[in-house]
Backbone:
C-alpha cells in the first residue's frame, strides 16, 4: 500500500488537526488524565461528536458519518500526536454500539445510539463472571421470563470496565440451561441504575480503579430490551467480540507506547550500565523496535483490507498479541534503565509514569482475550493446527454445571 495520505486524506488530516488546535483547552491533555472527571470527559466527547469526529465509520442512520476506517485512523493519530485524551465511551463505541446496530430494534437504535456517541450515556460490557472469562459460554447469570413477559436477572459479573460510571450495559445471560452451553444464551440492554443492580469498584495494582464487580438481584428487564433472539446470544456476543478485537488490536497501527521516548532513555542512560548490560539493553531495544514496526505495517494491511470492505480476520488477534508484548517489553526496558526515576519520568505520550504504565500493561494481556487464548486462535485458524479437544461439546449446560465444569 501507499503510506502517504491521498489528497482527500491529507485534507481530512488538516481539518482534524486544526479542530484540535482550535479547541486545545477544552480537549485537555493526557497529562490531566489521572484524576479525570467523567463530566469533563463526557463534555469533551460531545464536543468532538458535534464537530463530526466521533463514530466516523458508523452508518449515518445510526448517528455516525458513514466515513472510512482510514478517516478514523487519522483522527486517532492526530489525537495521539497532540496528546489529547482518548474518548471516555470507548467500550460503548467499540463494542456495545455495534451490537445494538446489528441486533437492536429500530426503537433501541433511536433511543440509544446518538446519545452513546455524544457520551450523554456511558456504556459497559457485562460478559465476564467469576467462573467464566476465556470460556465465556460457561456463564451462569440467569434470565427467567415472568408472567408479564419481562425478564428477571440474577447473578454476578466481574471486571466490568466503567460500570461505576455507566448508564447502560450489554448483558449476556443464560436463558436455557437444558441445551449446549453456547445455545442457551440471550443478550439484553440493562439500565445500570435499575433497582437490584449493585456496582462495587475493584482496586488494581496500578492504583487505579477502572473496573468493577456487578451484582444483579432480581433485576427486571422488559422484553423490548432484548438484543437478538432468545437463545441466540452467542451469535450476538460474537458481533461484540469481533468489534472488540478490532478496537483493541485490529486497527492498531501503534502500540500505544512511544518507541522514540525509550530510544531517548537508552541514549541518555546506557553509559551508566555495565558493558554486559549495555549489550542486553541494545538488543532488547532493537527487538522491541523491530516488533513495533512489524505491528505498524500489519495494522496498515488490516486497515487496507477493512477499507476495501473485508471483515477483520485472525490477524487482528496477532496484532493484539504482538502489540501487548512489544509495549510490555518497552515499558520493562524503560523501568530498568531509569531505576527509581521511573516512578516520576513521563512516558512521553501521556501523563503516566513508566512505573504506572508497567503496572497497567499486564492487564492488556488479559483483557479482550488472554495471550494464551489468542495463541490458540492463531494456532487453529491461521496455522490450521488441530483444534483443542472439546469434551463439553455434546453436553447441556445443566450437565456441565452438575459435573462442576
Ligand atoms: C483491563 C481489563 C478490562 C476488562 N474489562 C472487561 C469488561 O469491560 N467486561 C467484561 O465482561 N470483561 C472484562 N474483562 C475480563 C476479561 O475479558 C477476562 O479477564 C478474560 O476474558 C480472561 O478471563 P478470566 O479472567 O476469567 O481468566 P481465565 O479464563 O480463568 O484464565 C485463567 C488463565 O488460564 C488461561 N486459559 C484459559 N483458557 C485457556 C485455554 N483454552 N488454553 C490455554 N490457556 C487458557 C488464561 O490464558 C489465563 O492465563 C477485563 C479484563 C481486564 C484485565
Residues:
Amino acid at each position: 500500500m501507499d503510506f502517504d495520505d491521498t489528497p482527500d486524506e491529507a485534507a481530512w488530516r488538516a481539518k482534524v488537526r486544526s479542530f484540535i488546535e482550535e479547541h486545545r483547552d477544552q480537549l485537555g491533555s493526557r497529562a490531566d488524565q489521572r484524576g479525570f472527571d467523567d463530566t469533563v470527559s463526557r463534555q469533551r466527547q460531545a464536543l468532538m461528536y458535534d464537530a463530526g469526529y466521533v463514530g466516523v465509520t458508523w452508518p449515518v442512520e445510526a448517528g455516525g458519518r458513514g466515513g472510512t476506517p482510514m478517516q478514523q485512523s487519522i483522527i486517532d493519530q492526530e489525537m495521539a500526536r497532540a496528546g489529547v485524551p482518548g474518548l471516555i465511551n470507548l467500550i460503548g463505541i467499540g463494542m456495545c454500539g455495534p451490537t445494538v446496530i446489528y441486533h437492536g430494534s429500530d426503537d433501541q437504535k433511536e433511543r440509544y445510539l446518538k446519545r452513546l456517541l455524544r457520551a450523554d450515556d456511558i456504556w459497559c460490557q457485562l460478559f465476564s463472571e467469576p467462573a467464566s472469562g476465556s470460556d465465556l459460554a460457561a456463564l451462569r447469570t440467569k434470565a427467567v421470563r415472568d408472567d408479564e413477559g419481562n425478564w428477571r436477572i440474577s447473578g454476578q459479573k466481574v471486571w466490568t470496565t466503567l460500570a461505576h460510571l455507566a448508564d447502560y450495559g450489554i448483558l449476556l445471560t443464560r436463558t436455557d440451561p437444558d441445551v449446549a452451553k453456547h445455545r442457551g444464551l440471550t443478550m439484553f440492554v440493562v439500565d445500570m441504575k435499575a433497582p437490584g443492580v449493585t456496582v462495587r469498584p475493584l482496586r488494581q495494582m496500578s492504583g487505579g480503579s477502572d473496573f468493577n464487580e456487578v451484582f444483579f438481584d432480581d433485576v427486571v428487564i422488559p422484553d423490548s430490551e432484548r438484543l437478538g433472539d432468545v437463545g441466540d446470544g452467542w451469535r450476538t456476543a460474537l458481533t461484540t467480540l469481533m468489534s472488540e478485537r478490532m478496537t483493541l488490536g485490529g486497527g492498531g497501527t501503534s502500540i500505544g507506547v512511544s518507541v522514540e521516548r525509550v530510544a531517548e532513555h537508552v541514549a541518555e542512560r546506557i553509559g551508566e550500565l555495565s558493558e554486559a548490560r549495555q549489550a542486553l539493553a541494545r538488543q532488547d531495544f532493537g527487538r522491541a523496535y523491530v516488533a513495533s514496526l512489524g505491528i505498524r505495517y500489519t495494522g496498515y494491511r488490516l486497515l487496507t483490507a477493512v477499507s476495501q470492505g473485508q471483515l477483520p480476520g485472525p490477524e487482528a488477534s496477532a496484532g493484539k498479541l504482538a502489540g501487548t508484548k512489544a509495549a510490555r517489553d518497552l515499558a520493562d526496558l524503560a523501568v530498568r534503565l531509569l531505576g527509581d526515576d521511573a516512578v516520576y519520568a513521563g512516558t512521553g505520550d501521556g501523563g503516566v509514569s513508566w512505573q504506572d504504565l508497567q503496572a497497567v500493561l499486564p492487564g492488556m494481556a488479559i483483557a479482550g482475550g488472554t495471550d494464551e487464548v489468542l495463541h490458540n486462535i492463531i494456532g487453529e485458524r491461521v496455522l490450521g493446527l488441530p483444534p483443542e479437544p472439546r469434551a463439553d461439546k455434546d453436553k447441556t449446560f445443566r450437565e456441565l454445571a452438575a459435573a462442576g465444569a
In short: The first strand starts at residue 123 and ends at 126. The chain has a mean pLDDT of 90.
